[in-house]
């Protein structure tokens, strides 16, 4: 008589367990993409930034530029001290490919000038955010912190709504007795009806609009300029002009300050802004070399 194969209950249980471990869709199996998505696919990785290294900050500003920003250097008679002034002082950093800065501070007979230059290469550790996007976020935070004034309203935005005064046949405005018909008091005396010259809109003590803190349109991918005059001290007033610009994943900061020797002098805003912006353009060009 033929014997029937006999399989114990333990063997059946073991076979079932092994089948569950080797099956393609058992409970507890997971997709390779830990961030979610379709099984078998991976999330796209954002592109790295354009820049992988940084210029040496203390060597990024040439001697001619330093002579202009720090006039006291040319007044030095000791060559050793002069070379030390040109060299600047590097700021503490642990990775010069990520951040590098330099300080220069020189006194002259007229003022003490200070220049600070900082290069920062931004790296994103989020695979979905590129280095450039991360740098843009960081730059935006710094621009917001500068508290730049809102852009002035355009002429069309500030014009009165329709329904205002309408021109009269004589060239004046109907319903506005102060608009100056020919021969009226306070006119030019010519009787021709020509409009008088516009009056000044800002007092001499106000900063002209083109010198106020503002966004710069012709520097890097985005840039802004800040200008602060310290008037709270009893000593000479100190002006600090700051230019910050971003090029791809690198943010460059320039701080240029001047404090006159005489307490009655005030640093010239236009001159300092012009010097700082010229340096910024040179540094932007240096990054692209």
Following the backbone from N to C, one meets helices and strands in this order, namely HHHHEEEHHEEEEH
* SS field, number of helical segments: 7
Strand-residue proportion: 15-25%
- Could you give the count of β-strands? 7
- Could you say which structural class the secondary elements and strand pairing correspond to? alpha+beta
Biased composition (Low complexity): 149-182, 193-205
Organism: Streptomyces triticiradicis
Signal peptide: 1-19
Biased composition (Gly residues): 183-192
Overview of the structural elements:
Residues 256-266 have a biased composition (Polar residues). Residues 149-182, 193-205 have a biased composition (Low complexity). This is DUF3558 domain-containing protein. By secondary structure, this protein is of the alpha+beta class. The protein has a domain at 60-147 and 213-287. The protein is built from seven helices and seven strands; from the N terminus they run ααααβββααββββα. Strands 1-2-3-7-6-5-4 form a seven-stranded antiparallel beta sheet, sandwiched between helices. Strand 5 and strand 6 form a beta hairpin. 20% of the residues are buried. Mean pLDDT is 76; it is low at 1-7, 10-39 and 161-205.
């Amino acid at each position: 008589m033929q014997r029937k194969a006999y399989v114990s209950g333990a063997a059946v249980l073991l076979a079932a367990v092994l089948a569950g471990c080797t099956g393609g869709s058992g409970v507890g199996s997971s997709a390779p993409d830990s961030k979610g998505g379709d099984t078998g696919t991976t999330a796209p990785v954002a592109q790295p930034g354009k820049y992988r290294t940084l210029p040496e900050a203390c060597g990024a500003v040439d001697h001619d530029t330093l002579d202009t920003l720090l006039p006291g250097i040319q007044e030095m008679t000791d060559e050793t001290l002069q070379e030390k002034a040109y060299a600047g002082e590097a700021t503490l950093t642990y990775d010069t490919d990520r951040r590098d800065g330099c300080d220069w501070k020189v006194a002259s007979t007229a003022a003490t000038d200070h220049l600070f230059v900082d290069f920062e290469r931004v790296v994103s550790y989020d695979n979905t955010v590129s280095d450039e996007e991360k740098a843009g976020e960081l730059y935006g935070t710094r621009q917001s912190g500068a508290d730049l004034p809102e852009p002035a309203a355009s002429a069309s935005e500030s014009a009165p709504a329709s329904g205002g005064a309408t021109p009269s046949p004589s060239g004046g405005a109907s319903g506005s007795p102060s608009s100056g018909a020919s021969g009226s008091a306070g006119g030019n005396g010519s009787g021709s009806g020509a409009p008088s010259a516009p009056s000044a809109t800002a007092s001499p003590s106000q900063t002209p609009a083109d010198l106020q803190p503002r966004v710069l349109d012709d520097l890097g991918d985005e840039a802004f300029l800040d200008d602060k005059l310290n008037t709270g001290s009893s000593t000479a007033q100190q002006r600090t002009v700051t230019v910050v610009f971003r090029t791809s994943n690198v943010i460059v900061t320039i701080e240029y300050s001047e404090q006159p020797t005489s307490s009655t002098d005030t640093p010239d805003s236009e001159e300092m802004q012009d010097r700082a912006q010229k340096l910024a353009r040179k540094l932007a060009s240096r990054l692209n070399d």
